[in-house]
């Protein structure tokens, strides 16, 4: 008689746990990056009244007799499915599409989150807007722009307003078309005004003069205003289809009156020029150099690469956001504040760059919403309520049976 009461009591307790989990899921329906939990049950030890026996003496086998002793919560699992992405339009808001977690740090330990509501802290570091935890990644070399992801990740600094010294030109690319119907000679020469930069970030004007000297053959002569001087004349020839056949690369050597340095001869790429029927000829150029400027904004690519945009139009890598993946993401432990911590069953964090090794990509200007399915949660709420109600009815019925048993004496 008492077994039914104890079984029902376990049902009451564990369905209350079920309801607690459902309530927490619904409470976090609008929590950024929240992952809903799921309750699973298992039966407790059963009491064996009679063991099973096999066939013998012409009789068939006999099944065992067991009475269950109640229910137990077997697990409360975290469902790590993708939440809906919500557009915010804020450049420091980031959402992960696919698997992976942002790596956060308080300077002592690493934690992990899907909440990408970031902002720039007072010191220029990328951090969580709510907790102040730093977003980890790798800083780019300010001279080369290269990022070394083989070292442990650190805080990422985006120094808005910081200046950059001028970047000396090392390459100059000239593109466009030279009219194949050009009659040739100095009177029909084609000129292109270009700009390169010295080691101090000063703009140095260079004029290229293209003169047709024979069929499919052009001389290329650079000049610059005095007192500067320049050397680097060359000849290019075109094939019968109007593509560069020879002379696709030349060099440009500057001698500057202001004493500024240039790393060396500037490589001039002429290979993209064509000679087709087009009047007039149309040429343009671009260089990798830049004048002095200041950082005005930045962008974050899908692979977590941070690129700074300067007032002089120059773009330069600033850093790389790190992302972590786990062998068993469901084994992560919720730590509050939309944070997860690694556990013995989640495995160690595999930290690397987004869009690689199974890690997802980053969407800038979006936040990931909760993955709570309200329809499922309300259904679970009904299941928890009815389960609790049914178990309470078992206790009431058992009590009435006990009362009848006690009243047998009267």
Walk me through the structure.
There is one protein chain. It is built from two helices and 33 strands. With 410 residues, the chain is mainly beta. It has three domains: 2-50 and 65-77 and 371-409, no CATH class; 85-164 and 294-368, no CATH class; 171-287, Tick-borne Encephalitis virus Glycoprotein, domain 1, CATH 2.60.98.20. Strand 19 (234-238) and strand 20 form a beta hairpin. The chain is elongated, with a radius of gyration of 37 Å.
Q: Which of globular, elongated, flat, extended, rod-shaped describes the shape?
A: elongated
Q: Total number of helical segments? A: 2
Write down the Rg. Answer: 37 Å
Please state roughly what percent of the residues sit in beta strands, choosing from under 5%, 5-15%, 15-25%, 25-35%, 35-45% or over 45%: 35-45%
Number of domains: 3
Structural class: mainly beta
Number of strands: 33
Instruction: Output mean pLDDT.
Output: 91
Please report the distance between the alpha carbons of the first and last residues. Answer: 20 Å
The largest sheet is:
12 strands, antiparallel
Taking pLDDT < 50 over at least 5 consecutive residues as the criterion, the unreliable ranges are none
Give the % helix. 10-25%
Summarize the model shown:
By secondary structure, this protein is mainly beta.
Key descriptive features of the protein:
3 domains, Tick-borne Encephalitis virus Glycoprotein, domain 1, mainly beta, six-stranded mixed beta sheet, 40% strand, 410 residues, 14% helix, twelve-stranded antiparallel beta sheet, 33 strands, single chain
């Amino acid at each position: 008689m008492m077994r039914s009461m104890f079984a029902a009591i376990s049902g009451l307790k564990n369905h209350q746990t079920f309801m607690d989990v459902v309530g927490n899921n619904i409470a976090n329906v609008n929590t950024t990056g929240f992952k809903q939990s799921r309750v699973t049950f298992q039966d407790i030890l059963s009491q064996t009244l009679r063991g099973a026996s096999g066939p013998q003496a012409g009789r068939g086998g006999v099944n065992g007799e067991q009475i269950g002793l109640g229910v137990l919560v077997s697990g409360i699992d975290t469902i790590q499915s993708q939440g809906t992405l919500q557009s915010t339009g804020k450049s420091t808001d980031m959402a992960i599409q696919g698997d992976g977690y942002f790596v956060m740090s308080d300077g002592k330990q690493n934690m992990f989150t899907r909440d990408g509501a970031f902002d720039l802290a007072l010191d220029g570091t990328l951090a969580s807007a709510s907790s102040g935890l730093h977003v980890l990644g790798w800083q780019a070399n300010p001279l080369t722009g290269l990022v070394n992801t083989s070292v442990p990740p650190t805080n990422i600094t985006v120094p808005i307003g910081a200046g950059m010294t001028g970047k000396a030109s090392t390459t100059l690319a000239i593109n466009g078309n030279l009219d194949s119907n050009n009659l040739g000679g100095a009177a029909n020469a084609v000129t292109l005004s270009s700009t390169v930069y010295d080691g101090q970030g000063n703009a140095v004007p260079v004029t290229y003069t293209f003169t047709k000297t024979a069929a499919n053959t052009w001389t290329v002569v650079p000049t610059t205003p005095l007192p500067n001087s320049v050397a680097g004349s060359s000849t290019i020839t075109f094939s019968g289809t109007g593509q560069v056949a020879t002379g696709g690369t030349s060099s440009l050597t500057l001698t500057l009156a202001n004493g500024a340095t240039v790393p060396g001869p500037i490589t001039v790429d002429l290979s993209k020029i064509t000679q087709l029927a087009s009047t007039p000829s149309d040429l343009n150029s671009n260089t990798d150099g830049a004048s002095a400027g200041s950082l005005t904004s930045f962008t974050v690519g899908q692979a977590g690469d941070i690129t700074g945009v300067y007032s002089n139009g120059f773009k330069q890598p600033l850093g790389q956001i790190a992302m972590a993946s786990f062998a068993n993401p469901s084994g992560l432990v919720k730590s509050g504040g939309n944070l997860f911590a690694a556990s013995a069953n989640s495995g160690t964090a595999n930290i690397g760059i987004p869009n690689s090794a199974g890690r997802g990509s980053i969407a800038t200007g979006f936040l990931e919403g909760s993955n709570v399915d309200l329809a499922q949660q309300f259904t679970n709420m009904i299941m928890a309520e009815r389960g609790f109600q049914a178990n309470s009815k078992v206790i009431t019925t058992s009590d009435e049976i006990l009362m009848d048993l006690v009243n047998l004496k009267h």
